[in-house]
Amino acid sequence: MELKQVNTEQTILEAAERVFIEKGYSATRCVEIAEAAGVNHAMLHYYFRSKESLFNRIFEQKAAQLLGFFVQAFDRELPFFEKLKIGIETHFDFLTQQPGLPLFVLREIIQDKERKDLILQKALPLGMEILKRMRQAINEEESQGNIRPMQAQDLLLNIASLNIFAFVAAQAIFDNQADITNEQYKNFLEARKKNNVEIIINSLKI
């Protein structure tokens, strides 16, 4: 694929992500995505034949990025708690780059069964691969008596819950307060990231 085509495709994806997050899947029209991307409707149809295919591509892209973060963290030759710290922080930093994404996904899961089924279908392989890496690391540490017993799925849910809720809470706290500065918002997120790492690690320490 030529560079111009790659750039146009990525521009459309980025525009679609912004519009989806702002308006939700059902309320978004392809013509709005085309306008946001600076292309005509025919060009949008050339690259992505439907709104659903756009949504699928975006979700797959985000899932692949997230998988990469966790796999890289747990494949490193580092002490367990350092791996865990990196995994939690990179997941948090990933969400920092797209703070509206968690609330968008939660809204789609709650409001639309078709979107829920699609999201769960896409997320399941991702979750299983991350759990595989976590389970191996946890089993090794448990066998050496270094950590408290914990199921890998519980650990993953704890990490996801703490990190995702930080951004849902941030939107609820800051979105309607005009006097809140970017610095205050950044400080809030940095404090939550540090706190989340400490909560998770302390829950495993003997």
Account of the protein in words:
The longest helix has 31 residues, at 113-143. The protein has 9 helices and no strands. The chain folds into 2 domains: 1-49, Homeodomain-like (Arc Repressor Mutant, subunit A, Orthogonal Bundle); 59-204, Tetracycline Repressor, domain 2. It is globular. The model has no long low-confidence stretch (mean pLDDT 85). With 206 residues, it is mainly α. Helices cover 81% and strands 0% of the residues. 21% of the residues are buried.
Helix-strand sequence: HHHHHHHHH
Backbone structural class? mainly alpha
- At the fourth CATH level, what is the homologous superfamily of the largest domain? Tetracycline Repressor, domain 2
Question: With helices defined by DSSP (H or I, 4 residues minimum), what is the helix count?
Answer: 9
How much of the sequence is in beta strands? under 5%
Distance between the termini: 53 Å
The backbone outline, from C-alpha atoms, is globular
User: What is the CATH C-level name of the largest domain?
Assistant: Mainly Alpha
| Count of distinct strands | 0
The low-confidence parts are none
Tally of domains: 2
Notable characteristics:
single chain, 206 residues, mainly alpha, Arc Repressor Mutant, subunit A, Tetracycline Repressor, domain 2, 9 helices, 81% helix
How is this structure best summarized?
The chain is mostly helical. Helix content is 81%, strand content 0%. It folds into 2 domains: 1-49, Arc Repressor Mutant, subunit A (Orthogonal Bundle); 59-204, Tetracycline Repressor, domain 2, CATH 1.10.357.10.
